[in-house]
Amino acid sequence: MNQFAGSWSYRSLLRDPDLSKEFNDLRFGAGTLNIQVDKTGEITGSLGGEGWSLNISGTVTEGE
Question: How far apart are alpha carbons 54 and 10 in whole angstroms?
Answer without folding.
Answer: 13
